[in-house]
Amino acid sequence: MDETDQRLIGALRRDGRAAVSDLAAQLGLSRATVRARIERLVARGEISGFTVLTRADVTAAPVRGQMMIGIEGRGTDRIIARLLGLPAVQAVHATNGKWDLIVELGTRTLTDLDEILAQIRRLDGVATSETNILLSTRRPGVKL
Question: Which of 79, 98, 118, 140 could disulfide-pair with 13, CB 3.0 to 4.6 Å?
Fold first, then answer.
């Protein structure tokens, strides 16, 4: 991937719906070149997809947090399965270092977040945890 591809990806991150002609003008390239580069980036897997962030994605669970979990013993798979069954859990990430898992949470209220944190802490095998509430999120090309 060269510098032009990186600039193209940056432009698409800012506005994934941008017209090929607008991208071409921004990058100083022809429309055919931009179209061919996008097709090549998709074919090579450099661009794995395009997505839309809706208002519901942002407002359905306005209280968001990340919970880092330390697991005791060998119960990681069982705990992950339990976590994935909880509606407030948006994603579970395995990690290295001090924490075994990082769990992305989203709830409607702080009280709901507090309840889900307590529920997760009670899971057999959860030895320790730490939670951070996300105050704001910024993504390339997305104005919240």
Answer: 140
Q: Indicate if 127 and 70 belong to the same structural domain.
A: yes
Sign of the alpha-carbon torsion through 25, 28, 34, 38: negative
| Region of 19 on the Ramachandran plot (φ > 0 left; ψ -120 to 50 alpha; else beta) | beta
Q: Is the four-CA dihedral 50, 53, 57, 58 of positive or negative sign? A: positive
What pTM, to 2 d.p., does this model score?
A: 0.64
58 pLDDT band (50/70/90 cuts)?
Answer: low
Could you give the residue ranges of the DSSP H alpha helices within 1-144?
3-14, 20-27, 31-43, 55-59, 76-84, 110-121
For position 21, which CATH number holds? 1.10.10.10
CATH number, domain of 96, equals 3.30.70.920
One domain, residues 63 and 128: yes
pLDDT of 135 higher than 80: yes
pLDDT at 144 over 60: no
Taking the C-alpha atoms of residue 142 and residue 144, their distance in angstroms, rounded to an integer, is: 6
